[in-house]
Design a protein that fits this description.
The protein is an alpha+beta fold. The chain contains 11 helices and 18 strands. The strands form 5 sheets. It has a 6-stranded antiparallel sheet with strand order 1-4-5-9-7-8. It holds the Pfam family FAD_binding_4. It is an enzyme of class 1 (oxidoreductase).
Length: about 375
């Protein structure tokens, strides 16, 4: 493989996708955008004609020297990461998969990042540009030299986390990073209060930490960087060696915490750094602290309003991962305040006038 590679377009079905969108727009037919469907649990269910992007796959262009890759939205994350690994590079936002067939388009659409997120950045921080199928069935390029469209929107980053409600991602360009030269994971036996103090202390120091979690009396840390720095930090912290596969299980919600005793709804609490434990009637064993405590997975039967009020009081928000059909909240995402809702409605009306793209995916009203 040369420094700059271009893959043939044998999996380019953009024209067919554009035609389907064009017809749906004319007939005002709702579309349910689907790739591998591994993230169907995230958000409200969508009723509509399937728009399958899974066949729109393959790496369009990859320049390891410039640390840039452009890939079609239906490309499996595993295939993209394998190609990057040949050049010892990676997607630094560590996208969760939730299944072997998980696509990169789905990763961007949901905007979810893995354990490295607080130290490396979110999905949108690594999106350089994209090709988006608009409501009229046109394939438009955003990003790179064309940073915004005529309406003034940074569409490439706007698509990250929009859940396909504003348009269809066709191709995405990413900034990639070199893989760390060394890595070591460890665990320390610490009660929650001591672990949170420890994390706050470590966060004020220039240490090579790229993941930090706590659960059931144990603090988990991942160190990545130069070998000498890793060794020095490892010797300083001590603890017991931890299998690196732990972070994959946490990333993809495959840890035993997520797969066992699921008689309660699973919630994700997003909170500011160094937020103390919330005043909620939830056993510590039913909480998994990630992102050094800023992301907390909670298994609970508490109602949505109670959880969201506690998070809002702390400056955060709560999202339900369990579908309503299985005992989760009817509205998985925190309701918008009137001002923000107005902007969402205006944006949706401009980019999807007939409401054909994943209607109701984020909120029931649009």
């Amino acid at each position: 493989m040369t420094d700059t590679t271009t893959q043939t377009a044998e999996h380019d079905i953009a024209d067919a996708l554009c035609e389907q969108v064009k017809k749906a727009h004319a007939k005002r037919t709702p579309l349910r955008i689907v790739g591998a469907d591994t993230r169907a649990f995230y958000g409200r269910p969508v009723e509509g004609e399937p728009l399958n992007i899974a066949e729109h796959s393959g790496i369009v262009h990859y320049d390891p020297v410039e640390l840039v890759v452009t890939v079609r939205a239906g490309t499996p994350i595993s295939a993209l990461e394998a190609a990057l690994a040949e050049h010892n590079q990676m997607l630094a936002f560590e996208p969760p998969r939730f299944g072997a067939a998980s696509t990169i388009g789905g990763a961007v659409a949901t905007g979810l990042s893995g354990p490295r997120r607080p130290w490396a950045g979110a999905v949108r921080d690594f999106v350089l540009g994209s090709h988006v199928i608009t409501q009229e069935g046109k394939l438009l390029r955003f990003g790179g030299e064309v940073m915004k469209n005529v309406a003034g929107y940074d569409m490439s980053r706007l698509m990250a986390g929009a859940q396909g409600t504003l348009g269809v991602l066709a191709d995405i360009s990413f900034k990639v990073l070199p893989k760390p030269t060394a890595s070591h994971s460890l665990k320390l036996s610490l009660p929650l209060s001591d672990a949170l103090k420890k994390l706050a202390e470590l966060g004020r120091q220039p240490l090579p930490i790229t993941a930090a979690a706590w659960h059931d009396g144990e603090l988990f840390l991942r160190l990545e960087g130069g070998k000498s720095s890793i060794n020095a930090t490892r010797d300083r912290l001590g603890g017991e060696a931890l299998d690196a596969d732990f972070w994959r299980e946490l990333r993809d919600l495959e840890h035993a915490f997520f797969t066992q005793n699921n008689d309660k709804a699973l919630w994700r609490l997003s909170l500011p750094p160094n937020t103390p434990p919330l005043a909620l009637d939830i056993p510590e064993s039913d909480i998994f602290y990630d992102w050094a405590g800023s992301q907390r997975f909670v298994k609970t039967s508490l109602d949505a309003e109670t959880l969201r009020q506690a998070c809002q009081h702390a400056g955060g928000h709560a999202t339900c991962y369990t579908p309503a059909a299985y005992g989760g909240a009817a509205d998985p995402f925190t309701p918008l305040n009137p001002v923000v809702e107005k902007y969402h409605r205006n944006l949706k009306a401009e980019l999807d006038a007939h409401g054909i793209f994943n209607p109701g995916r984020l909120y029931a009203a649009f």
